[in-house]
Fold:
Amino acid sequence: MSNEDVKIKSINDQLSEQFGHAAEEQNTTSVAVGKEASSIVDYKMVTFSLAGKDYAIDIMHVKEIAKAGRFTYVPNTLPFVLGVYNLRGEIIPILDLRLFFNIDVPERDENKLENLLILNIGDQTFGVVVDKIDKVVGVRKNTIQPPHPLFGDINIKYIYGVVEANSHLYVLLDITRIFGSKAAAEEAQAKKVRVEQVKQPVAAVNTAPAAAPVAPKVTENKVQMDLHFLSEGLGNYKKFTVSDINKDWVTKRFAEWQNEGKNLIQNEEDADSFLKGFWSTHTDSWWSKEYADAVFKLLPDNNAKQIVVWNPGCGKGCESYSLACVLAKRYPDAKIRIYAQDIDLLKVSNAALMGIPEELEGTWYDDFLSRKASGDITFNQSIKDSIMFEYHDCKNTNALPNVDVIFARDVLSLLDKESQGFVTADFLEKMKGNAVAFVGENEKLPVSLGFGENSVGTLIAYSKE
Structure:
C-alpha cells in the first residue's frame, strides 16, 4: 500500500469514527501540548491545498475522501463541472473547486486520478476536486478568527474564518454558503424574530381604552404598522421583500390574512402560509399545454437568426427546458440561446443531468423528446444545446449580450429593494427594441421606468414603450 493510500485510509477511518460516534463528539477532547496544560478541541476540519495555499472544511460536511478519474462528461454543464461519477451505485456530480474559484489548473491528464472530497450538504452528495488532501485537524472553535480578504485568493463571502494550527494558517471555507441554496448565516437570521417587534403592535391595541371610538386615522396607522411588521417577518423568514413590485398582491393577501384571524408572521410556517398563493404557475414543475400556449401567444414576431434569452432563477431546470420548447416552436428557423442562471449551485449544476419523467410522453412536449438506447426519455439534442446553465447572482454585473426575451418569474421579490432597482434597470438596458420580459404573475414592473404591458390571462409580457 502506497503512502497516499495509507493517508486516504487514515482520514477515512477518522471520518467513520467521527460519524459513528456523533454523540461522543458533544463532549470535548483534551490534547496535550508539550508540557503545558492541555487544550480543548471542539472543532474538527479536513485540510487540503489549492494552488499551494492551505484550506479546510468542517469535518461534518465531509463524507469521505477518494482518488478517482475518468468522470463521465455531461454536455452543457458549467465549466467547473467535470462530469458525474459512480460512487458505489450513487451517481454524483464532480465539481473542480479550483475552477470554481478561478484558480489556474494544470492541463488535465485523463489517466491521472484526482483528489476528491465527497461532501454532503443537506440531502445532496457531490465530489469536489482539490490539489492535495492533507489530514484531519482539531482546533478550539474560539480560535477561529473572522475572515479577511488577504487570507485567500477567493471571495471573502465564501470564507467562514481563518485558524492557525500546527504552524499552518488555514482558510476555513463556508461550504454551506458555497454549495447550499442558502447561507448558514442567512438560515440563522431567517429563524430570528425580535420579541419586541411581535409584541409592539399588540401592546398598541391593548393600551387603547375599551370604550373609546377608534378614529379612522388611528385605524390606518394600525394597519400600516401591522403591514410593516408583516413585511419584516416575510423578509426574516423567506427573504421576501415587500415593494411596489408586489405590494398590490401583498396588501390584498394581508386583508385575507386578517380575515382568517391572523396578523403577524411569527414563524416560517406562517410565512409559507402567507405566500402560498404568490408563486407563479408551474414553479419548479413541468408546464401544462395551456400555460405553454399563453407564453407562446405573448412572444412577439421576430425574424432574427438567433433568439437570446435571459432566464435568472431557473431553479432545477423545468422552467428552462419548457421555455426552450416553446421558443423552438415559436421561432422554428432561429437558433435559441438561453442563459439559465441560479444561485443554488447544486440545482444549477444538476439541471443538465435532469431525468425526464414518463408522464411527459404523450403531452405537448412530444415533439421535443426522444428515447435513449436504455429506454429513458430525454429532450432532443437541439433543446439541450439551446440552454447554458450558469451559476450567477443577478444582483451582480452580468456580461450578457442584448436579449430578445427575459424570463424572471418571482425573482425580483426575493431581492432587497436596492437590488430590485438595479436588476429592473438592467432589464431595460439589455432588452432589444422588440424584446419582452416576463416576471412573476403577482409581480409588476414599474410603469414609471417605461414598461408597457400585454397579457394573456394572468400572464403579462412587458415591453419597452
